[in-house]
Amino acid sequence: MPAQDTTPAITAGHLIRRFGNFTAVNDVSFTVQKGEIFGFLGPNGSGKTTVIKMLTGLLPLSAGEATVQGINVRQDPEAVRENIGYMSQNFSLYSDLTVEENLTFYGRVYGLNEQNLRRRINEIVELNGLRPYYKRLSAQLSGGWKQRLALGCAMLHEPKLVFLDEPTAGIDPVARRQLWDLLFDLSAHGVTFFVTTHYMDEAERCSHVAYIYFGRVIADGTPDDLRQLPEVNPPGTYRVEISALQVTQALRAARTIRGIRSATIFGQSIHAQIDDHLDLDHLRKQLEQQGIHVAEIRPLAPSLEDVFVELTFRHQAQQAKQTVATPEVPDA
Amino acid sequence: MLNPFRGFGAVFYKETLHVRRDFATLFFSLIIPLLQMFLLGYGIDTNIREINTVVYNADGRRESRELLERFKNSDTFRIYRYVRNDRDLNEAIISGKCRVGVKIPVDYSDKLLHQMPAQVLILIDGSDSSVAGQAINVSTAIGLDESLRRALATSDSAFAVDMRPKVLFNPDSRSPNFFLPGLTAVLLLNVTTFLTAFSIVREKERGTLEQLFVTPVRPMGLLLGKLLPYLGIGFFELLMIVTAMRFLFQVPIHGNVFLLAFLSLPYIFVSLSLGILISSKATSQAHAMQLAFLTILPSIFFSGYIFPRETMPKFFYFISYFVPATYFINITRGIILRGAGWVHLWTDALALFVMGSLLLIIAARRFHDKVITA
Question: Could you say which residues from 137 to 176 on chain A have a Cβ atom under 8 Å away from some Cβ of chain B?
Fold first, then answer.
């Protein structure tokens, strides 16, 4: 008998996908363990959806290997699709069908027999609180409820791995938080989630994140691991938050000060990366000399956004160097 | 001081950009009227020419061959086939391959040689009244001319060649009898090509198609599940049209209604496959609408529905072979007007079935390449 299953939910090994001359996914590798909430981040057009299509067997791999729930994607894409749930950003519901009819349709798609179908629909409806809307057309549901219904449809066949492609795009903050509560709940029951998102606060909630930039994964780890990367915290520097009244002027002033490596506005404050030798009192004095009223300056751990921005800059710099070194590569 | 035209320049600037960017819409809105002009300008020749004619020459001697030469030399008739008995003569017309049959009786030459009037039977398919009228006029004229020539040569005054035209179907030339069976083909496209194309493109727009591809649903299961309801709707539509035609418009149905229902299936199949092909290309319902209209136009103009195919220039006549409605119109007119049966129409049904299968294969391929893995 096999011991408690320790095969990863997803392994991606050196995935490559080319479209003609264009390499959309370039040597992407990562591993998602069972029960993780894996956040897959990256700007639009960076290859997130292409990776999902490859992992779900829709797009053939140009090179590399992938397994999903232990199934080789190249060999048996059909079996992969039997064993996963998928919810896209537009929730993919039939708006002219009721909640019940949508659930019934997707249940049949996954080949549930009538008895299992009824049982699962009841469970989903209870779990997601859809009971009051059961006979309503899905067109009449608000964004948050649509999303819960879509998640329900994707989980009718009790998949152990669910792909969520930007599940919270365009829904209100309360519904967003409720969805995450639901995800944590399901994750505690052993379901693995592969989530793409643009929201950095959602990335912070994931147990494992990877950042893809122009087809390459440039960061992969837990949020804490990433915050402690040496590239993000170069020796001899630290990060501070400067609260000031006139943020825009403060930013302009801060950028003139020697020892400040980078600075950006975050709401009513400035996040800056500064050299060790620049102490906080000195910094405050220099700003006040320029007429800025500084409320507070305090040290700060880098956010995931800081991490991704830093890594992106480094990656771009590297690319530029390579382009110079190999002049036959056309300018992208 | 308020300028009522405020913003004109900006909107004008933006709109010209839109028009230039959306090349497809511009193309279709400009090209379709032009296409229609070409069709109506070149496609219609009110002088009906080259009517397919079947000949049964029971006589076969010099005099009969001279008469046939006159038919050949006339612009109106094109001798399509020679047959050796009455049955084949009738079959050629019932099957729709020929519109006119010429029967020269066995004693034609004898009668002429003995200075007696000789009759020639002209069988005319009356389903298209303009073709029938032209056939009557020209064949009678040929008879007169031949008589005159003989009279001058032999200095005999009797009318020697007596053309006896007989209009076979739709003898009173009712236009509903002619148009309604053809209209069926065009109307059916509405519920088949249009509805399938829309139903798939709508799923594209909503993103539900993308969702389905990530489920165990296989492309063939998806397409078949989508096609079957519309096949049912198309079939039901056909039954309604035929019922209305028979009882409201009093078009007599000379053939077997069940055969008509059965032979409509391959046509509906072609139309549905066209719908899938369109949906693999179209990105929005408006786009699908434009493409679907492109299929309606040839079905109206090239299929013989309005203009007899005989009157078309060679090029358009050639195109008409690739228009599914051409075959289906021959089936509907054949069964309804001429009482045609399976033996006359199986080639049309086969042509439709082959077209439908090819289209479905192309559509399924395109669907796989351009929609699923795009």
Answer: 163
Please list every residue in chain A whose beta carbon sits closer than 8 Å to the beta carbon of residue B217.
Answer: 109
Nearest CA in chain A to B207: A92
pLDDT for B155 equals: 61
**pLDDT mean over A88-94:** 80
Angle at A207 between CA A202 and CA A212, to 5 degrees: 65
Cross-chain residue pair A84–B373, CB shorter than 8 Å: no
B183 in Cβ contact with B328 (< 8 Å): no
Average pLDDT over residues B41-63: 81
pLDDT of residue B44: 61
Burial of B290 (C-beta count, 10 Å sphere; 0-12/13-18/19+): middle
Element (H, E) at B259: helix B257-281
Q: Which of A95, A111, A163 sits opposite B216 (nearest CB)?
A: A111
Interchain proximity A111–B372, CB inside 8 Å: no
Mark yes or no for CB contact B208/A106 under 8 Å: no
pTM (predicted TM-score): 0.76
Contacts of A59 in chain B (CB under 8 A): 373
CB atoms within 10 A of CB A108: 14
CB contact under 8 A, B217 and A109: yes
Asked if B127 contacts B138 with a C-beta cutoff of 8 angstroms, the reply is: no
Based on the number of CB atoms within 10 Å of its own CB, is B30 exposed (0-12), middle (13-18) or buried (19 or more)?
Answer: exposed
Whether the predicted pLDDT of A99 surpasses 90: yes
Please state the ipTM of this predicted complex. Answer: 0.75
**Residue B235, exposed/middle/buried by CB under 10 A (0-12, 13-18, 19+)?**
middle
Q: Is the predicted pLDDT of residue A330 greater than 60, yes or no? A: no
Which is it for strands A237-244 and A84-87: parallel, antiparallel or unpaired? unpaired
C-alpha to C-alpha distance for A154 and A145, rounded to whole angstroms: 14
Residue B54 · residue B93 · CB < 8 Å: yes
The predicted model gives A52-56 an average pLDDT of 92
> Among the ranges A25-39, A129-143, A296-310, which has the highest mean pLDDT value?
A25-39
CA-CA-CA-CA dihedral for A273, A278, A284, A286, to nearest 10: -110
DSSP state of A75: T
